[in-house]
Amino acid sequence: MIQKISLVIIIMTLIVFTSCDDSEKNKYETTKLDEVVQKVEVNKVITKQEVLDIQNIWSNGIIRIGKVYTEKGDYKTEAENHINALYGYNLGKVLFKPTLASETQFRLTKEGALSYFVGHNENFSEDHGFAINPWINIRWESIGIKIEGNMAIAMGNYYFTPADGGEDVKVEYTFAYTKDEDNKLRIIMHGSHLPYSPNNK
């Protein structure tokens, strides 16, 4: 009888210790999970410098497309690489409103964006290839960058210097950015417009 009671006590003690161990283990794992989630969230917070960096990369990409075109290289592939590297088509729909478009003002596909940059697409006959103009310099003039966690919006003017030595072309822009699962900043909205002129009524 004493042996049976002792066995029951031992079993109950093991159950209690096991429960405590599981509880501590779960608590530890939950804490570690929270730390990982917090780390991911912190990494996905966008900084102003990241926005400025991607604007500079975008400019260099547009200038590069024009240079490749001028040198009779594969400018279409260069433009495709530019879009794939910077725009968020891997995340879903990108809102793209190019400057010089009136027939198809809003482009919701990668094909539409590519056509605007390089032209030669019968589905967008108005496009002559903005990026193959070509340009030798693009200067950004920001009026503000608004950041909310994993979303950033930038607005202002950018100025395009033609390679033929003409005057800079002033254009208004609004771009929105987010980070993908690889923590890479992506353009998810591209809005570009010529400034209003009271003479163009």
Question: How would you briefly describe this protein structure?
Answer:
This protein is of the alpha+beta class and 201 residues long. It has 4 helices and 5 strands. The radius of gyration is 28 Å and the shape is globular.
What is the number of helical segments per DSSP (H or I, 4+ residues)? 4
Number of strands: 5
Radius of gyration: 28 Å
Number of separate domains: 1
Strand order of the largest sheet: 1-5-4-3-2
- Oligomeric state of this protein: single chain
What distance separates the N and C termini?
105 Å
Helicity, in percent? Answer: 40-55%
Taken from the alpha-carbon principal axes, the silhouette is globular
How would you spell out the order of helices and strands? HHHEHEEEE
How many strands, what sense, and barrel or not for the largest sheet?
A: 5 strands, mixed
| Integer average pLDDT | 85
CATH architectural type? Roll
The CATH first-level class comes to: Alpha Beta
* Secondary structural class: alpha+beta
Strand content: 15-25%
Poorly predicted segments:
1-20, 35-40
